[in-house]
Design brief:
The chain has 6 helices and no strands. It has 155 residues and is mostly helical. The longest helix has 25 residues.
Length: 155
């Protein structure tokens, strides 16, 4: 059991995303470096889809990591650094765009469409008519029923 847990821990360690931050990029002040890492997790690489600048090996991500660290050393707050990068590269670099203007469509279109689909499915299922019972034909008269019983061997 102990070996199984050790193997699992090793697999999970190897499966963790490797950060692309190079040793020469790391700031000597641990507090500033921690802030830079937090900002790096929020900013998307303009070249790579779905990777933040800390995980991306693209040259532009390295430049952005250095830029973030330069701005932090200059005394900018986290929001000022993010605003500076957003002004230069647009809102695409934000993993979570601001909830204003046209971005509201991004945030609310999916849930609204899902809700409308649920309502439509509910209305469709409730409005379906059950299949009518099959009609064999017109009812038999008393004379026809009597003749049918005679043919079938009954009384």
């Amino acid at each position: 059991m102990k070996h199984l847990l050790q193997a699992l821990a090793l697999i999970l360690t190897l499966a963790a995303p490797a950060l692309a931050v190079q040793p020469d990029e790391v700031l000597s002040d641990p507090a500033l470096e921690a802030r830079a890492r937090e900002i790096g997790q929020v900013l998307r690489c303009p070249v790579c889809q779905g990777e933040n600048i800390d995980e991306s090996n693209a040259d532009v991500s390295r430049d952005l990591r250095l830029l973030v660290r330069e701005r932090l050393v200059a005394g900018d707050s986290d929001s000022e650094v993010i605003d500076y990068v957003t002004d230069r590269y647009g809102e695409y670099v934000l993993f979570e765009p601001e909830r204003t203007g046209a971005n509201l469509i991004l945030y609310y279109a999916g849930p609204v469409a899902f809700g409308l689909a649920l309502i439509g499915a509910f209305v469709y299922l409730r409005g379906r008519k059950r299949a009518p019972e099959p009609q064999i034909g017109p009812a038999l008269s008393a004379e026809e029923e009597k003749r049918l019983r005679e043919l079938m061997g009954g009384n």
